[in-house]
Amino acid sequence: MPSNASSPSFISQLCFGTIEEDLILPYPKMKPAEQETFKAIRSSIEQLLKPHEKDFRAWDEDGELPASFIEELKSFGLFSLVIPEAHGGMQLSATAYSRTLQELAKYDGSVAVTVGAHSSIGMRGLLLFGTDEQKARYMPKLATGEMIAAFCLTEPGAGSDAASIKTTAVKDGDDWVLNGNKLWITNGGIAQFFTVFAKTGGQAERGNMTAFIVTRDQAGVSVGPHEDKMGIRASSTTTVHFDNVRVPANNVLGEVGKGFKVAMKILNSGRTGLGGGTVGGMKKLISLATRQSKERVQFGKPIAEYGLVKQKLGHMVVDCYATESAVNMVNHLIDSGSEEYAVEAAITKVFGTEALWRTADEALQIAAGNGFMKEFPYERILRDARINRIYEGTNDILRLFIALTAMNEVGSELKELSDSLKGIFNNPIKGFGVISEYAMRRASLATDRVKREKTKFTKLHPALEKNQLVFEELTRELATSVDRILRKHGKNVIGKQFASRRLADIMIDLFVLASTLSRVSTAMQEQGVGKVTKEIEILEVLTGQVRRRVRSNMSKIDDNDDEFIKSLADDALDREAYRWDNVD
Ligand SMILES: Cc1cc2nc3c(=O)[nH]c(=O)nc-3n(C[C@H](O)[C@H](O)[C@H](O)COP(=O)(O)OP(=O)(O)OC[C@H]3O[C@@H](n4cnc5c(N)ncnc54)[C@H](O)[C@@H]3O)c2cc1C
To answer: Which one of 281, 342, 395, 547 is at 20 to 30 Å from 274 when CA atoms are compared?
Structure first.
């Protein structure tokens, strides 16, 4: 699979109608040596967490993981997962790291979040941007868990709009002096190592921020009490305060003034950890719900025999397999050195967290009254699952990010095209060159008969021809829609959130389908069609779902009720109430 730093984004290319099949075929596998390491990790996680299975409910009620359990996590090496071997860590690839979080999430959301916040975001800045000296100073302590890490970006006035943070860092001699308050920081109460984002361009300059390493022992650092939360209650979430904290200049992470980029890179890079967690949660729920359906007898039969119960279970399997395929694919893109995976990583976060939410809700429905009782794990898993759609970028903001980032390149070509139209009179040869390149791409979308490279899959198993044709057709429709929307709105598309959301949903569906096609096709080629009949069934269901959803989203681009919906929202906003709440 020839992917590397110069590989394009699969979804950005899809917006042109181009299928970069070499990026996703054959379906990736964990390397044999890493499989061995991972098996050992999996069995030690089982050894550590199985005996605690009865404790998770109590810890959820207490709203805290006991200090003795955090020590156990440290002694099992769970804070060393992504740290280079040279600094005492396991140096897991993105694939093996994500699989490890999957295993943790099968047991308990709070435990997975505690480990994940450390490795995915807390110390990820040091891993990605740290100097050799900084790494040597902190990595060994982060690996043993002597230092647990936290990521401090959010503030009371700055959530999704991270560029609006108010925490400041002012240069004083060789030091920076930090002042400000951070909110809802995972691991805040147990961390000794903080990646902190502060403004370094003065209050007026939006977005000019810098990332700093701050440690708990520095004068002026304090943390608030554990927040009382809906879910992942046993994980530590606190405020973190910086009161005239003097941070030496050699604790700057990355470049001064480039902190926003650092924050975004950390979040992009850590996102598949969360994706792995969602897959683990779904696998656990499928086990719980199938056992429950076989044990519970109503109307003289186990409820597992009823169609409506089977319908829920079957959909859980499709959701889990599809998420797993997409998460593995993005991990592979990261592990093979691609720089262009941010959109695909965001897709796995959105799809996985929503698939987990559906699965948790349906598993609770199958358990019904039992599901509602604290004695059973369903309500806790449902509460734990809810946060995933909010943090590390809300799914709404990520949808805007997916659509706008993926369309960006098409937008640039279109802009170049319109600039060239103006320029034709000055420089006809250059102008027509650009037009004909774009026109060729467009022509290849307009008709199947135009033979142009990369508008089709060429390496899928031939028995998947029907699914392949659906994917290719939807791809052409995506490209046509992107072109149409960009021509209609130009750069004002940024404000067209209804349209962006539809495009994002189409892109999400197509990436998940592409990953699953790759997985099933590779399995068919390697094992033979007869051995993968269940996988083919999953692909049939997913292809149908994606086709129907994409078509529905496409049809709404021109035929929708957006203006009515906006008007009704405005009316409710004006009244701050439902208009028809009358007594009569
Ligand atoms: C348990 C927990 C743990 C957390 N851990 C951390 C952590 O470790 N480190 C950290 O820095 N932060 C952390 N956070 C913060 C988390 O990342 C933020 O909650 C998240 O980014 C959303 O910000 P917000 O809650 O302020 O929502 P807001 O940004 O206020 O958004 C409110 C709603 O408006 C929508 N919205 C906002 N802007 C737009 C827009 N432009 N267009 C359309 N819709 C929009 C959002 O999607 C959302 O639905 C944590 C939060 C929680 C609850």
So the answer is: 547
Cα distance between the two ends of the chain: 69
Q: What is the distance between the alpha carbons of residues 468 and 463, in angstroms, rounded to a whole number?
A: 9
SS3 150: strand
Structure token pair of residue 42: 């999996």
* CA distances to 299, 313, 380, 526 from 306, in Å: 10, 11, 26, 36
Which token pair is 377?
């794990």
Q: Considering Cα of 104, then 135, then 220, then 267, what sign does the dihedral take?
A: negative
Q: By C-alpha distance, which of 123, 211, 121, 162 is closest to 397?
A: 162
Please tell me the chain's helix, strand, coil percentages from 3-state DSSP, rounded to the nearest 5: 65, 10, 25
How far apart are the CA of 150 and the centre of ligand 1, in A?
16
pLDDT in tens, 390-430: 999 999 999 999 999 999 888 777 776 666 545 444 444 44
Are 192 and 147 in contact by the 8 Å Cβ rule? The answer is yes
Our answer on whether the CB atom of 186 is closer than 6 Å to any ligand 1 atom is yes
Encoded tokens for 82: 């992504």
> Given the DSSP bridges, would you call strands 193-199 and 149-152 parallel, antiparallel or unpaired?
parallel
Query: Is residue 339 annotated as a catalytic residue, yes or no?
Result: no
Question: What domains does the chain contain, in order, with CATH numbers?
Answer: 26-144 (1.10.540.10), 149-259 (2.40.110.10), 261-395 (1.20.140.10), 397-570 (1.20.140.10)
8 A C-beta contact, residue 85 and residue 322: no
Mean pLDDT of 111-120: 98
- 3-state SS of 381-449 is HHHHHHHHHCCCCCHHHHHHHHHHHHHHHHHHHHHHHHHHHHHCCCCHHHHHHHHHHHHHHHHHHHCCC
- Res 459: pLDDT: 97
Q: Is 99 in contact with 28 (CB distance < 8 Å)? A: no
Q: What is the pTM of this model?
A: 0.94
**Catalytic residue of the set 21, 340, 392, 535:** 392
Split at pLDDT 50, 70, 90, the class of 152 is very high
494 secondary structure, DSSP code: G
Closest CA to 26 of 44, 2, 9: 2
DSSP 214: E
Query: Is the distance from the beta carbon of residue 504 to the nearest atom of ligand 1 less than 6 Å?
Result: no
Q: Which atom of ligand 1 is nearest to the CA of 394?
A: 47
Q: Distance between CA atoms of 402 and 406, rounded to whole angstroms?
A: 6
149 lines ligand 1 (CB under 6 A): no
CA of 566 to the centre of ligand 1 (A): 23
**pLDDT, tens digit, 9 for 90 and up, residues 234-282:** 999 999 999 999 999 999 999 999 999 999 999 999 888 899 999 999 9
Distance (Å, whole) CA 508 – CA 350: 8
Distance CA 147, CA 187 (A): 11
